[in-house]
Amino acid sequence: MQAYDSLETRDPAERERQLFDALRAHVVRAKSASPYYARVLSDIDPATLTERTTLARLPVLYKSQLIELQAESRPLGGLTDVKPGEMRRLFLSPGPIAEAQGRDTACKGDNWRMARALNAAGVRQGDILFNGFSYHLTPAGFMFDAAAAKLGCAVFAGGTGNTETQIQAIRHFGINAYAGTPDFLKIIMEKAEELQTPVTTITKVLVSGGPLFPQLRAWYEKWGVAIRQCYGTAEIGLIAYEGAGPQDGMVIAEECIAEIVRPGTGEPVADGEVGEVVVTTFDEAYPMIRLATGDLSAILPGRSPCGRTNTRLKGWMGRADQTTKVRGMFVHPRQVANVIKRFPEIIRARLVVTEVGGMDEVRLICETQGNGSQFAEVLREAIRIECRLRGEVEFIAPDTLPNDGKVIDDKRTVGV
Q1: What is the mean predicted confidence (pLDDT) over 3-28?
Q2: Cα dihedral 225→226→231→233 (10° resolution)
Q3: For residues 133 and 180, what is the distance between their CA atoms, to the nearest angstrom?
Q4: Residue 62 structural domain
Q5: What three-state secondary structure class fits 306?
């Protein structure tokens, strides 16, 4: 392993201490420079933020809230006092959700911290990177462009479409590295084979923006391509990346704090339990504190065999936004979580939605040590008040529900 820097191999206790030192300073800045954080963190003393349990007291910021905040306070929802014209770049992702890239950061141009993921994929100074991500509207293309520049690589600005021209470019320049979605390079390689002009120079590949299925990974490996994947978002940048191989999870990126929480809440779950990925970064121009990504994952035990010492995520395990409509009413994971947290007797629970005879049925299935008709009636009333729905309650033994992060399980075969 060639580490990107010494941060990747530092002692975990030292990393945690340095992260929380940075967090306290970041919250001080955010409270003074961001109207939004000044409001939602008004009762938070930054000096008390010393470890994970204190971090969990801070509110979670959901992506759906970004849309609402930005509609109320254009263009960036009051998350920053930096004027739009003072930013380096502005983006508008589907939602729509606005994102911004500041002019000056501690990352010195690599605002999204993607360089360490490219490094883990074997990309080095002097390589030529085919950038298959778009530079249009969203920041993905710029993320990998900046990362390649940080490593000292040349970049060919590719993108989807014009496959034959892109094949010519790969052969003409001798491009040896690729960053893009998992399937687009396969399209290029298959088209090159069809044209009897195979592209064999590309041997280093980093993919993101979609799942890398095992059969697709095996297809690339058959062609002698060393492939790695990374995970990030437009607001956060890099969150985690493969340092070793598919069975060894994704190492959480440096210079950010990642948590796994119960969907619909800010409550951390135990290591190994599936929950929603929540991330804090330290970008001064566009701060993100406890942003809920909407993605599910879990913490893997132990350390990566690649030698990097940070905690690992199991990988992308689905979407956390399980909002559904029942009898004409939207039901959100947060509402279900509000019911559950009122009762310490409940270990885990989920709201199961089914359809019987054309009618929606709702049942709260609870892992609990206690039960009984009186407790069930209390829970039914709690569901009615919080979710504005009448539902049934079922008690089951502890450790019965699957570990899949679901708070709402919609089993209806026809959407509503």
Answers
A1: 97
A2: -50
A3: 5
A4: 6-313
A5: coil
Same-domain check for residues 116 and 225: yes
User: How sure is the predictor about 27, in pLDDT bands with cuts at 50, 70 and 90?
Assistant: very high
Read off the pTM: 0.87
HSE-CB at 316 with a 13 A cutoff on CA atoms is 18
Cα 245–chain centre separation: 19
Local structure of 164: helix, strand or coil: helix
345 and 201 in a common domain: no
Q: What is the domain-level CATH number for residue 348?
A: 3.30.300.30
Tokens of 309: 């010492």
Task: Indicate the number of domains in the chain.
Answer: 2
376 and 295, same domain (yes or no) = no
**Do 344 and 223 fall into the same domain?**
no
**Position of tokens 């991330």?**
279
Residue 319 carries which DSSP code? B
Token pair for residue 411?
């089993």
CATH number at residue 23: 3.40.50.12780
Could you give phi then psi for residue 72, rounded to 5 degrees?
A: -80, -35
Is residue 119 classed as helix, strand or coil in its secondary structure? Answer: helix
The sheet carrying 61-62 orders its strands as 61-62, 291-297, 275-281, 256-261
Residue 415, in any domain of the structure: no
pLDDT (0 to 100) of residue 339:
93
Average confidence (pLDDT) over 253-271: 94
Same domain for 251 and 374, yes or no, is no
Does some domain include residue 134? yes
Residue 75: asked if its preceding bond is cis (omega within 30°), the reply is yes
Token pair recorded at residue 206:
């980093």
β-strands 275-281, 256-261 pairing: antiparallel
How confident is the model over 337-364, as a mean pLDDT? 90
Placement of tokens 């005879």 in the chain: 357
